[in-house]
Amino acid sequence: VEVKIEVVIPEKERSKEEMSPNGKTSPLIYKVNGTARHYHLEEHPIASNPYHNPKDMVEASVCHVKDLENGQMREVDLGCGKALLIKESGEFHAVGHKCPHYGAPLVKGVLSKGRVRCPWHGACFNIGTGDIEDFPGLDSLPRFQVKIEKEKVYIRASRQALQTQRRTKMMAKCISLSNYNLSSTNVLIIGAGAAGLVCAETLRQEGFSDRIVMCTIDRHLPYDRPKLSKSMDSHPDHIALRPKEFFCTYDIEVLTEMQVAAVDVKSKIAVFKDGFKMEYNKLLIATGNMPKTLSCKGREIENVFNIRTPEDANRVVKLATSKNVVIVGASFLGMEVAAYLAERAHSVSLVELEHVPFKKFFGERVGRAVMKMFENNRVKFYMQTEVSELREQDGKLKEVVLKSGKILRADVCVVGVGAVPATGFLKQSGINIDSKGFIVVNKMMQTNIPGVFAAGDAVTFPLALRNNKKVNVPHWQMAHMHGRIAALNMLAHGTEISTVPYLWTAMFGKSIRYAGHGEGFDDVVIQGDLDELKFVAFYTKSDEVVAVASINYDPIVSKVAEVLAAGRTIRKRDVDTVISLSFRTGDMSWLTGKGS
């Protein structure tokens, strides 16, 4: 018996046009007070489909059909690239072997119920279609056809697909932009982060061919925001989620440096800060958060930063090199910035009100282990204190004065003391906002106003994992899923959100992975060695595991995420069994069914 894998491209995708419905794509322009504003971006048509040329195909024998048991995956080499061969329920499947997000080897991930979950950041892909089913990331996996002949496994695939290891799902285009009033749109998306972009892409993937406009206060197209603190010297073009050509090709219009000042939900009009008004039919609010600032004396001194844009991050790196840096706040952003600058700056000091970093999120024991890692890398902590004053010399920062009386030399100060939802412009709109400023939505990301949806860091929503408790989950992965659910329900699909929160942080070459929602946990069960930074921590509330975190224990977090996603309950007493079954043997049979 032979297994052959061949790239399959739907006929309608082979024949779809590469040009926009307007013929040759050209920028759309409107004028406000005589100033021209460009909707569309530079014209660069996307390359034609790479799978047309049969000469591009490669075929190779990779294994015997009996080499794989049910529930097993194998990374196989075709000479010019690799594929992931999977056997589940007696059937073979083949897809790309790398996660399109950051390139994680999926063979080290988790296979369960027809999908494979990335071991690094939790993205999920359907093994039959290659389609992305949970996030982060935008692209799906290439799928290869499998044939069985003569007990040998042959794979036939496109060289291009093997090299790129990603596939953008087929999308519709706008029928005729030239017929539209420039001051009206069918869908308006306020915010161009992950939630906004995924919403726009999902609409196109679902065949929506009307006008879509995104607007953002940023000067850049949507970019990989987590890298602002993890890879601070990244150029904006290098962290763009999509190239400029993508937006032109699929008629997703982007207004940069445009801030919405108010929304009239009765008239369905968004009013911009410069006076321009745009009518909409459906609205998505995905404005995210705004960083908190210090309230002490001297907060306006030069070289005091919030990290909000690539320019902020780049500027901090440049100024901090071989200088003294003070970071205020042991938040994820603060700790990641400290780790990134530790080898570049002369000194890095971190000021925090709590006595242990991450105590509320990871617990005291894990927090102390992380703190020790930082201290071993020359980061000095000043805990249980706050900043009382920033002092300057010649207009630039010189010293940070703490309430404890300690004075720190500082050439640069980075503030990471949390964030607030960017929803101030909605106060008089009639949209339901809670006491903390978060937009309240239901499981379909709908607000209390018909046709108005919200997504991302600025919302609270019912989390199925915690019995539909209204929560705010400001994670990159969750923003992606919010955007997708909002788009589907703009199209009246009636889809409810059901996903397990998943996040990661990277510091000094170590990655902490986390899945679930541990807010209010009352105990932590730890397996492994905290001192060696090789452990897994289970967070429990009333004997139920509500979250898990790990360092150097892959893919345990992704496996627990699959358990929780399947509706299973893990009890504290079951932790040893979970580790034994899932981590040591890879047995996922306990995923079947519901309940404990």
TrEMBL record:
This protein's record includes keyword Chloroplast: no
Gene Ontology MF terms: 2 iron, 2 sulfur cluster binding; metal ion binding; oxidoreductase activity, acting on NAD(P)H
Job description of the protein: Induces apoptosis through a caspase dependent pathway. Reduces mitochondrial membrane potential.
GO cellular component, one term: mitochondrion
Keyword flag Isomerase: no
InterPro entries, A to Z: FAD-oxidoreductase/Apoptosis, FAD/NAD-bd_sf, FAD/NAD-binding_dom, FAD/NAD-linked_Rdtase_dimer_sf, Reductase_C, Rieske_2Fe-2S, Rieske_2Fe-2S_sf
GO biological process: execution phase of apoptosis
Domain Rieske: 60-155
Species of origin: Sinosuthora webbiana
Name under which the protein is recorded: Apoptosis-inducing factor 3
Keywords tagged on the record: 2Fe-2S, Apoptosis, Electron transport, FAD, Flavoprotein, Iron, Iron-sulfur, Metal-binding, Mitochondrion, Oxidoreductase, Transport
Gene3D superfamilies: 3.30.390.30, FAD/NAD(P)-binding domain, Rieske [2Fe-2S] iron-sulphur domain
Gene that specifies this protein: Aifm3_0
Localisation per UniProt entry: Mitochondrion
SUPFAM superfamilies xref list: FAD/NAD(P)-binding domain, FAD/NAD-linked reductases, dimerisation (C-terminal) domain, ISP domain
Family the entry assigns: Belongs to the FAD-dependent oxidoreductase family.
